Amino acid sequence: MIVLSLNCGSSSVKYQLYNWDNQEIIAKGIIERVTIGNSFCVHEVNNKEKVTVEHDCPTHKEAIKLIKDCLVHSEYGAIKDLFDIAAIGHRVVHGGEKFSKSVVINQEVLKTFKELASLAPLHNPPNIMGIEAAMELLPDIPHMAIMDTAW
Hints:
Layout: E1 2-8, E2 12-19, E3 24-32, E4 40-45, E5 51-54, H1 60-72, E6 85-92, E7 103-104, H2 107-115, H3 124-137, E8 143-147
Parallel strand pairs: 1-6, 6-8
Antiparallel strand pairs: 1-2, 2-3, 3-4, 4-5, 7-8
Helix pairs in contact: 1-3
């Protein structure tokens, strides 16, 4: 099973692609300078050279698009098709008292995250922007939230 993890911050998006069955990281990377200009992605796939891709990402949606493109790129991609991804895990800093464990994200959960945004005002809003972007761009893949506060 292939799992994509996303950690969306205010000006960066970190990602890792896992082969869950083998407990192996297939690809990983970070997009820097999201929303502030001169964005770039440092993308690394096992057994391949690290690649830096310059691409403007004025929004988290553009950053998620860039991640998608890197993962399936003909030269430096890690998978052939995005449908190889079985699930997407999103880091959420603060789930309040409402979430004590990981949860499948739906519109109700997303609404609750927005209500709890003030609990981690520097972290939860960009987490939410990344979730919304990923759910829009990859709607056929289940999305899960993993809260720091659930540990």
